[in-house]
Amino acid sequence: MANQSMDIITKVLEQSAKLVEEQVDAHLSKLDRLDEDELERLKERRLEALKKAQKQKQEWLSKGHGEYREIPSEKDFFGEVKESKNVVCHFYRDSTFRCKILDKHLAILAKKHVETKFIKLNVEKAPFLTERLRIKVIPTLALLLDGKTKDYVVGFADLGNNDEFSTEVLEWRLGCADVINYSGNRMEPPTMTQKSSSKFTKVEKKTIRGRGYDSDSCSEDD
Length: 222
Prior knowledge:
This protein is α/β, with parallel strands linked by helices. It has 5 helices and 7 strands, in the order αβαβαβαβββαβ. The protein has a 5-stranded mixed beta sheet with strand order 1-3-2-5-6. β2, α3 and β3 form a beta-alpha-beta unit.
């Protein structure tokens, strides 16, 4: 009699254990399916984001982003600015040496920051525009957002006041104006490997001086 009772208890325990095991297996299987579904959804979202980013990049490239180029005249300036949200325009003069220094750095940044249009305009071909924007010092970078001039980089005052600033310093300065997507520290310029005499002015400072076009270059080809 005792043996029969033990057999019954054993069978009940085995059935209970089997039932619990089946429930646990079913729950784990459900979790696996959820994980797989979530991973699939993450993959789909990631793929969609990549497609969207690629489409945006192609749109930028079709509008002249991704390269540093010269526009023929001030008439072209308005069309270029109207079709792009972020624009950096270098107002230059052939005889000013520092304009050539800026050209080198801007060509690098144009390829890196496709989200921004980088163009240059000869001030001698843009008398109306330079007067309207009060461009007095050469070189000057006009930084435009949504068709409006937000900031200027006048000469090299914001770049260390010498000709040996790095591309990273100019990138930082443009980032401070939100004209490029900048992920670095905006509170101070990148580590400099320049002369100890390099000094930075406050970013918000603007300098308009002289009559006609004053050169900010230490050496002239005039």
